Amino acid sequence: MFMITPTPDVPLKPGSGTKPFPGIKMDILDEQGIPVENGEEGFLVIKTPWPAMLRTIYKDPDKYIEKYWSKYPGVYLTGDSAKRDDDGYYWIIGRTDDVLKVSGYRLGTAEVESALVSHPSVAEAAAIGLPHDIKGNAIHTFVILKQGVEKSDKLVEELRNHVGHEVGPIAKPDSIEFVDVLPKTRSGKIMRRVLKARALGQDPGNISTLEE
């Protein structure tokens, strides 16, 4: 969210976008629209207009209202998940559409992916949620190993335990699939919807932006 940006008078904190630009009022709300406590994760919203803000979607004004203004009337929903510390610094967790709900817990796909990549055997990783009758979502991951690392069931269990240690037991992937490539856009963004569609045997839709 570009309206949270460092300014010369604000000291930096590693990993934080710092504070909202002067004049911009932001907050973090829960599912019911109630502001969360500092340190808790929630939906990032903007309470005041700003220069050059998006005012509609071309030829689809109803979608603009639905996507950005309907969840919490009167405030702009950024689509980002975030938390704020006691000093008023904001920390962007990831896109809310990249959040998995597992047994009542909200987990960002980025959290699981970062944990996997922090393992010395892993070069890249992607995580998606697949429907699960009990947990809501089962975490399914795709992993590209570093050159020279051999695939094995032992490594799968090691990676699962590594994620459990780094994020928490609830974040342990239900399955880990070793792959050679991941579907990405030309800008390098992993297309998780393509991975999810393939895992569910569905049509991946428009893939014209894929690098390959």
Give an account of the 3D structure.
This protein has 212 residues and is an alpha+beta fold. The protein folds into two domains: 26-95, Luciferase, Domain 3 (Luciferase, domain 3, Roll), CATH 2.30.38; 103-200, ANL, C-terminal domain (GMP Synthetase, Chain A, domain 3, 2-Layer Sandwich). It has four helices and nine strands, in the order ββαββββαββαβα. The strands form three sheets. It has a four-stranded antiparallel β-sheet with strand order 1-2-3-4. A three-stranded mixed β-sheet has the order 7-8-9, with helices on both faces. A two-stranded antiparallel sheet has the order 5-6. Strand 8 (136-145), helix 3 and strand 9 form a beta-alpha-beta unit. It is globular, with a radius of gyration of 19 Å.
Distinctive features:
2 domains; globular; GMP Synthetase, Chain A, domain 3; 4-stranded antiparallel sheet; alpha+beta; 3-stranded mixed sheet; Luciferase, domain 3; 212 residues
Q: What sort of overall outline do the alpha carbons produce when their principal axes are compared? A: globular
Described by strand count, sense and barrel closure, the largest sheet is: 4 strands, antiparallel
Distance between termini? Answer: 29 Å
> Helix and strand succession?
EEHEEEEHEEHEH
Mean pLDDT: 88
Helix/strand/pairing category: alpha+beta
| Spatial extent as radius of gyration | 19 Å
User: How helix-rich are the residues, as a percent range?
Assistant: 10-25%
The top-level CATH class of the largest domain is: Alpha Beta
Domain module count? 2
**Structure annotation, total helices:** 4
Secondary structure: number of strands: 9
Main sheet strand line-up = 1-2-3-4
**What portion of the residues fall into strands of 2 or more residues?**
25-35%
Low-confidence stretches: none
